[in-house]
Amino acid sequence: MTSPALRKRASTKSPSLSNGARRIACGRRTEVKAAGNIFGDYFQVATYGESHGGGVGCVISGCPPRIPLTEEDMQPDLDRRRRGHSGINTPRKETDTCQILSGTYEGMTTGTPIHVFVPNADQRGRDYNDTTNAYRPSHADLTYDLKYGVRSVQGGGRASARETIGRVAAGALAKKILKLKSGVEILAFVSKVHQVVLPEDAVDYETVTLDQIESNICRCPDPEYAEKMIAAIDKVRIDGNSIGGVVTCIARNVPRGLGTPVFDKLEALLAKAMLSLPASKGFEIGSGFAGTDLTGSEHNDEFYMDETGNVRTRTNRSGGVQVFIL
Fold this sequence. Notes:
single chain, alpha+beta
C-alpha cells in the first residue's frame, strides 16, 4: 500500500523547465554522493575536469617506481585523441598539451601519485547558453539535473568526451609499463562506420601495425574501406548530422592468468571500462553476439600443443579468455 508521503510526492506537479528543472524535488531529495570517478585496483586512475572548465586530467596511483616517463610519452596518444585535427570530426581547437605535475623526478616515476593536467584552451561556454532551459536529447543534461539538482551547463561537463583525456594519458603510461614488463602490444582500429563494415578477414590480427592503422584519418587499416567510411561520414556531416561506429581492439603477447572469479572476470572488467566511455552502447569479446549463430561444437576453441610445448587454441572465438581467465 502506498504511504501518504509517497502519494503526496506522486501527485505533486513537476516545475516547468523554464522555472529550473534542476530544482525538481530538491527539498525532498535523498542526499547523493558524486562518486564513480576512479577505476582500477592496483593501477588506479582518477579522472577529473569538465568540458569548458579550467582543464581536465587524471591522478594515477600504483605506478611502479623507476619507469622512464615524461610528457613526450603521453603526448602522441593525446594528439591522436584530439578533436579538430581532421575534416571528419568536430572543429573544436585544442592543443591538449599535457603537464606532469607530480610523481616523477628527472624523467623517472617515483612510485607516488602521478598528476597529469591538460588545460582547456578553446573554451566556448557561451555556445551552450540555450541549454540552460532546454535539455539536449541523448545527452546527460536531464539525468544530471534529476540526480544531483545541478549540472555544468557549458558543454557536457563530466559527460563530455574531454573526460577521456585523463584515460588516454593514464593508458599511455599503462601501455608503456605492459610493454616494458611483459612485451604486451595493444592496438585499436575502426572496423565499422554506420553501415560500412570492415570484413573480418580484411585484417590479420597477428600482423596489423600501428602504421597501417594511422595511414588515414579514419584509422581503418584497410585503405579501400577507409575511403568508404570517410565518404559515409562526409555525407551526413554536410547535412549537419552524425553517425556511429565500432572500434576493434587487439592485445598481443598478454601473459596468462589475468582475471579472477566471479565479479572480477577479465572480460567483465574490460566491459566496465569500455561501457563507461561517453556514447558507448555495446561491448563484445571474441565472437561476441555473433557466437549465438553457432552451435556449441562449432564455437568451441579446440586445444593443441604447439612446437614449443605450449597449449594453444586453433581458433579464438572466446577472444583469448576461457571462462574468466586469460
